[in-house]
Design brief:
heterodimer; A: alpha/beta; Rossmann fold; 17 helices; 20 strands; 32% helix; B: mainly alpha; globular
Chain lengths: 511, 366
């Protein structure tokens, strides 16, 4: 490595008492794809924010293509040839692709010239790197995968030689991720440098040349991808050996505990989001519901859990019919528990202390006090017990919910929902934004629930998770059920095709 | 990308920050006083002496404080539910109407019956007046900020109509009701003290001060300890989580507005039942609006609100005396100081926060 694209030396960053980056060194070879992995809160995002000028490092040196530079804003970063594709896109939905690309560099009072240039460049990138997008399409009407391409084009248009991608595949179908990787490989062939931040080991193994592992703000290892393996990387990330629990293809009970018949759901704007969906889950069974996010899964869950009414169809819990406009409290009383897909938006109140978040949904439960008042001591004691049993760290019921890491917040939610002994569990995105150590723990808990004879509907955009836990897998696309398979009788390819909306060509309905 | 939110230790958040903000507001007020050619130090001394320097002044200070506790609590309860109730003024007027109706009808009965009924009527009328905007918000999505402001005007018009055409005794020029019979009058504290053998200076301070303190305790219990308060705070912090928990944000919105309105309505207990002993125009005198500043300064916590209300009580009483002693400093000066307190404690509340956070963390060992 004679002339690395990026060299970071001794980067330090503190936020108050949090030491987000401790003396981080990094060397990224020119024209390579370099992966950075680490658990949530390991400091990856902070490091990249420093590189892209959102934060300034407290100490340390940034050397880009051999030149030490100071990056105080993203304008400095762009001037140094660094571009960033954020996890949450920074696009104007109502503008065309070309308008988005030239945003901030319109080149004069009139936009015609800038637009023409942007348009021709977009077409050139399309042919050169295989990143094709219609320059005149309205961004809001593009698929997520295409929007991401617009972000990459924006970086290229600003002359980026080094592109940082932050968790780029989180919102993509497997096929779209595949396309993204092909584009990245093409960029590498043309001597651009890619920094890929991810927590998915599979992606690191598939696409990167080198990989650096961060843990607790420190850079703990650098490896050539060809000389390492997922097991080693996982252990480096967590700092201890990690065992993944294994599903036993146990026999499901006879009793159908959750029965959904021809359910349709419209959202607040009246758009049909779930169309004529039917499935059932038996005692001791995990039904995995796969699909790219935004295909009606959220509406389905919210309807089943009483957060929005359904338009038509019937739902039975433990054989009892559920009224169409039953609210969440009624459903809990019928034996349903719900681990929501977005714990911060729904499952917790982040400004509450943990013990108040830990009774959310059970706030009227007699075990937490009298009819009018909440017995705070009882709630705190109860929460402390849950925290011990679910290994929540730190086990402090008085700590503000927001101050727990994602994995520990999720454990609080799962502990709360599981410990009421429900018959039916709806568990959505149980490990989203959760670190590897906690993932194994949460998966083991879900399998324990199955063994205890619960009916579990597992909704996840992570195919690996669906395959690791489910007895049967069904796929939603465009609000409809594309098909249902026994886990043993299918593979990720087939499910991936169904997620993309292609009708299943083989196999029978396994319901 | 915005900067990361800074967090402070609790004591700094609850005590240091508000104190610094108030200090800054006074500093800025001092500059204004200086600009009109008076000495800020002398003005401060006069203000404090007027408010706290003699028994009668203290009585007046606490009488104003009573109003601010009620209206501050009213704003705070709505605030915990994520609602901005600007209608304290109108709700207090309705409270006054309710109290007056009860006191006029029942005033000849013993006070032990008439007074609780009149207090209840004040609370109920205020609650009803606030519940309508609450209902409109919950069911129709009409923003409470807009509707409560409009309801202030409606209340004011209603009060004028009732006073001119209904309550005014024939032959009286002033638009006010007749004076209540004795059963409808809350006793002054100096009267109570006198009956117990103490001697207190004469002031408008009456039993509603005790009622205000009790309300503060009750609101604290409601917000931080009751199941309803839990639901209110959940809806205020995260309506989606509330729906997830089986709490109806619509129901809580209406309820929280009603409780808020009841507290605002009880301000009339002090003014109408406690001091004036008759219904009259414009008795709310802007106390409903000042309640917003009080709630902001008290950070929604009843304990903080009692102290913030006391501060405003001092400002009101001391300001009146100051205007009397120094004609060049008019009562408008007090409005300026209030405005600056609202500006620093409310609008610029977090201006100092990052600096304090930096100072505090620098002290900690690396």
């Amino acid at each position: 490595m004679s002339n690395p694209a990026i060299r970071l030396v001794g980067i330090e960053k503190r936020f108050g008492a949090v030491h987000a980056n401790r003396s981080v060194d990094l060397m990224v070879e020119d024209g390579s794809i370099h992966g950075i992995i680490g658990e949530n809160g390991a400091g990856k995002s902070t490091l990249m924010s420093i590189l892209f000028g959102f934060y300034e490092a407290d100490a340390g040196e940034i050397i880009v293509h051999g030149k030490p530079i100071r990056i105080r804003s993203s304008a400095d970063a762009i001037a140094a040839g660094i571009g960033m594709v954020h996890q949450h896109f920074m696009l104007v939905d109502t503008m065309s692709v070309a308008e988005n690309v030239m945003l901030g560099m319109e080149g004069g009072a009139l936009t015609a010239g800038g637009l023409a240039k942007a348009r021709s460049e977009i077409i050139r990138f399309g042919t050169e790197y295989g990143i094709q997008v219609d320059p005149d399409a309205i961004v809001g009407e593009l698929s997520v995968g295409q929007q991401q391409r617009v972000e990459i084009i924006k970086a290229l248009y600003r002359g980026a030689q080094i592109i940082i991608l932050d968790e780029p595949t989180g919102v993509l179908t497997p096929a779209e991720a595949e396309q993204l990787f092909r584009a990245l490989a093409e960029l590498r062939r043309q001597r651009r440098t890619i920094l890929l931040i991810t927590h998915k080991l599979k992606e690191i193994m598939a696409i990167t040349d080198h990989v650096s592992v961060m843990r607790r703000g420190e850079m703990v290892a650098h490896r050539k991808t060809s000389e390492t393996n997922p097991q080693e990387l996982a252990e480096l990330m967590v700092g201890r050996p990690v065992g993944q629990p294994v599903r036993s293809p146990g026999v499901a009970g006879e009793a159908v505990l959750l029965d959904v018949r021809n359910i349709s759901v419209t959202d607040a704007r009246g758009v049909l989001r779930v169309e004529d969906l039917s499935f059932s889950v038996r005692a001791g069974e995990i039904l995995g519901l796969a699909g790219v996010s935004g295909n009606g899964q959220s509406e389905l869950i919210e309807s089943l859990s009483g957060m929005m009414p359904r338009r038509s169809g019937e739902v039975f819990i433990c054989g009892k019919p559920v009224p169409a406009n039953a609210h969440a409290g009624t459903l809990r009383a019928m034996g349903l528990a719900h681990v929501p897909e977005d714990r911060q938006r729904m499952g917790l109140v982040t400004i509450f202390p943990a013990h108040e978040s830990a009774i959310l949904g059970r706030q009227d439960n007699p075990s937490y006090g009298s009819r009018l008042f909440i017995d705070q001591k009882a709630a705190i004691a109860d929460t402390a017990g849950k925290m011990t049993r679910f290994d929540v760290r730190p086990p402090d019921p008085l700590l503000k919910t927001a101050n727990f890491s994602g994995g520990n917040q999720q454990k609080i939610v799962i502990a709360r929902e599981v410990e009421t002994e429900p018959d039916v569990l709806i568990i959505a995105q149980p490990t989203r934004g959760v670190d590897i150590g906690a993932i194994a723990f949460i998966h083991r808990k879900i399998l324990d629930l199955k063994a205890a004879g619960k009916a579990i509907l597992l909704v996840s955009v992570e195919l690996d998770e669906i395959f690791a836990l489910s007895d049967r897998i069904c796929v939603m696309c465009g609000g409809r059920l594309m098909g249902m398979r026994r886990t043993e009788e299918t593979n990720q390819n087939e499910i991936g095709l169904m997620m993309a909306g292609l009708e299943a060509t083989t196999g029978e309905h396994a319901a | 990308m915005s900067a990361k939110p800074v967090s402070l230790p609790r004591w700094a958040d609850v005590i240091l920050l508000p104190a610094l903000n108030v200090g800054l507001a006074f500093l800025a007020s001092g500059l204004v006083v200086l600009a009109i050619g008076e000495s800020p130090l002398e003005a401060t001394a006069l203000l404090l002496r007027g408010a706290l320097g003699h028994a009668e002044g203290i009585g007046f200070t606490l009488y104003y404080t009573t109003n601010f506790i009620f209206t501050g609590l009213a704003v705070a309860v709505a605030f915990h539910a994520g609602l901005f109730n600007i209608g304290g003024e109108g709700q207090a007027m309705l409270g006054g109407i309710g109290a007056a109706i009860a006191a006029l009808l029942l005033g000849s009965l013993p006070a032990i019956i008439a007074l609780p009924a009149a207090i209840l009527a004040a609370a109920l009328f205020g609650a009803g007046w606030a519940a309508i905007p609450g209902w409109l918000q919950a069911k129709r999505g009409s923003h409470v900020v807009i509707t409560t402001i409009m309801f202030n005007f409606i209340a004011s018009a209603l009060l004028v109509y009732l006073l001119v055409d209904v309550f005014r005794p024939t032959g009286m020029m002033e638009p006010s009701s007749r004076v209540f019979a004795d059963g409808g009058k809350l006793p002054f504290l100096h009267e109570i003290a006198a009956s117990l053998g103490f001697k207190l200076a004469k002031s408008p301070l009456n039993l509603s001060f005790v009622l205000a303190l009790a309300s503060a305790v009750a609101v604290w219990l409601l917000i931080y300890r009751s199941r309803l308060g839990y639901a209110i705070r959940t809806v205020g912090a995260n309506p989606t989580a509330a729906r997830y928990a089986g709490i109806s944000p619509e129901r809580i919105t209406i309820l929280a507005m009603a409780i808020s309105g009841a507290l605002a309505g009880m301000m009339a207990v002090n003014e109408i039942l406690g001091v004036q002993h008759r219904l009259l125009l414009a008795f709310t005198a802007g106390y409903g609006f000042v309640g917003i500043a009080v709630a902001l300064m008290g950070r929604g916590n009843p304990v903080g609100i009692v102290f913030a209300a006391l501060l405003f009580g001092v400002l009101y009483q001391g300001g009146t005396e100051l205007a009397f002693d120094k004609p060049s400093i008019s009562r408008d000066m007090i409005v300026v100081i209030q405005g600056l307190v609202i500006l620093f404690a409310g609008a610029l509340e977090f201006m100092l926060k990052p600096w304090i956070a930096k100072l505090l963390t620098r002290k900690e060992p690396a």
